[in-house]
Amino acid sequence: MKLKRFLITLVLTVLIADAYAVNDTIILNSEIYSEKISADLDSLVNSWYVRMAMRENPEDFKYDSVGIEFSDSVYKARIINTNSLIKLPYNSIIRNHIHVYTIKQRKQFSAVLGLMNYYFPMIEDIFDSYGLPAELKYMAVIESALNPNAVSRAGATGLWQFMFSTGRMYGLNINSLVDDRRDPVKATHAAAKYIKDLYKIYNDWILVIAAYNCGPGNVNKAIRRSGNKKDYWAIYYRLPRETRGYIPQYVAATYSVNYFAEHNIRPLPLNIPVSTDTIMVTKDIHLNQISEVMGIPLGELRALNPQYRTGLVPGSARPLSLTLPLSHLGDFIDLDDTIRNYKPDLYLSRINLTGDPSRSVYVPVDVKGKTKLIYTVRDGDNLGFISEWYRVGLSDLRYWNNINRNTIRVGQKLAVYVDPSRSDHYSKIETMTFAEKQQMIGKPVTPNPVATAFLSMPDGEYITYTVRYGDTIWDIVKMFDNVSTTDVLSLNSISDPGKIKVGQILKIKKKS
């Protein structure tokens, strides 16, 4: 009898401990995603149309400061009644996220609702052309709060939060002047292609949404570690921590967009021109030229054309689209020559120097007596590596190059200031391989032990890699130095990155 009571007590103790552990995890993940939602919504408030609306109609942004909370049964019934091909669950985690939108950040969420009339029809139209469920549009709410200029801490950018490599893989043009990740139309086409590729892998929309957040490699690992269970909630605790909150956040966004009126939230009235049109530009033109000649606010032009990072539309390189309010399109065509001839020396020459420290007039104030070198960023580089190679402070490197975060791009040129007596030594870094640079600072590069088991080293300029279960192109590229996804795809004549097969042999270019 004593043994029986002891075993019962032990089991109850374990169950209670597990319950507290699960509850702590739920609370932690909810708090993490509450912070992310809040950050996205706060950044949206700084966008041009939202700032104009808040300035012109401040009461529309402030009128309802008190949120309404409903019972679980009401939330659950509303979610069940939401028209969706995607099965929407309900639990306490989802309730916590609903409260972020409808209570904690309700005023900021009203700005998202104000943007829906502009972005949702475009997203629905594009998704329909790819045969995707329209309700996947709610992903854009949790990705960026419908802000095409949103940038995450990791460098994911735009309405659909593409990383550099994934954006390039899906045809987005990214350089110092143009970033198509910020182009709502082009980025939505890329997102649709990516989502279709993910659905071919999982045939389950919830897993597709999770994989969009953390990558198919992480989802595949979670499936393997869960005994090949292909159910989101069955692999929940095997997923990266941030992804555990992603599906609940998606459900919460879906609920909040459909039932905001029940929470006494109304969309912030934004003066976005619903009727816009695009015209192809075949010569360089600057948004400032258009603004000053035509009297269109520069902020509005930038909001309609967020992909042009400096304001320059470099149409002479290749035809590029320019979005204008439909009411101004005819005037733009009539004034084309006048606009292009307006202060060309000011707007079309100086801007071409932006982003190239080797030609920029910007010089930090505390580098007197030092030698300036230029380093061109390569695939696989990060600011931490570069600061170690040149023996300079990471904060100095960011300051010298006006970098607020740690995000850098392949091909970007960075200014580095070094001691003149060591300039010859450091100037060689520009031409060294990644392995040589690491060895120079006492950190030799060792082969990836996981990858090595699946590599063969034939004579010639290539090595080969045998695809394993759960591999993706993204996972494979990370195993090698100085190799990009574009390299692997083109070298192996792969047009669809989602269709590599277990046992397939891929060529990988040897390190130079």
Can you offer a commentary on this structure?
This protein has 512 residues and is mainly alpha-helical. The chain has four domains: 25-263, Orthogonal Bundle (Lysozyme), CATH 1.10.530; 276-353, no CATH class; 371-440, Membrane-bound Lytic Murein Transglycosylase D, Chain A, CATH 3.10.350.10; 449-509, Roll (Membrane-bound Lytic Murein Transglycosylase D, Chain A), CATH 3.10.350.10. Helix content is 49%, strand content 8%. It has 25 helices and nine strands. The chain has helices at 2-44, 48-56, 58-62, 72-80, 92-104, 106-129, 138-144, 164-169, 184-202, 205-214, 216-225, 241-244, 246-259, 287-294, 298-304, 326-334, 336-340, 344-347, 383-390, 394-400, 423-427, 434-440, 449-452, 473-477, 485-491, and strands at 276-281, 284-286, 312-314, 320-325, 371-376, 413-418, 455-456, 462-466, 505-509. Strands 7-8-9 form a three-stranded antiparallel sheet.
Identify the notable features of this structure and list them briefly.
Membrane-bound Lytic Murein Transglycosylase D, Chain A; 4 domains; 512 residues; mainly alpha; 9 strands; single chain; two-stranded antiparallel ribbon; disordered N terminus
